[in-house]
Write a structure and sequence with these properties.
Helices cover 52% and strands 14% of the residues. With 77 residues, it is an alpha+beta fold. A three-stranded antiparallel beta sheet has the order 1-3-2. The longest helix is centred in the C-terminal third of the chain and has 13 residues, at 64-76. The protein is globular, with a radius of gyration of 13 Å. 16% of the residues are buried. The model is unreliable at 1-8 (pLDDT under 50).
Length: 77
């Protein structure tokens, strides 16, 4: 399957629809599913501040809009 480079070259507003189907707060497992990282890696990144997240009780949540910003920074960083 060919890589869609037009998505990476589009403006920030054009990429936002890629995240529209996601809930407002992503769980650590959601981030694992989206990134392919292990749950332990995602939790460690949340705790260390590499992924913008909030802890509610014992669980980590990543706001969808902040995750979109994070992904853009990783791709263009």
């Amino acid at each position: 399957m060919p890589v869609q480079t037009d998505v990476l070259n589009s403006s920030r507003e054009d990429r936002r629809p890629l995240f529209d189907g996601l809930p407002d707060l992503l769980t650590a497992q959601d981030v694992c599913d989206l990134t392919g990282a292990s749950l332990q890696t995602v939790r460690r990144a949340c705790a260390g501040g590499q992924i913008p997240a909030v802890r509610i009780g014992r669980r980590w949540y990543v706001p969808r809009t902040r995750f979109a910003d994070y992904c853009e920074g990783v791709c263009h960083g």
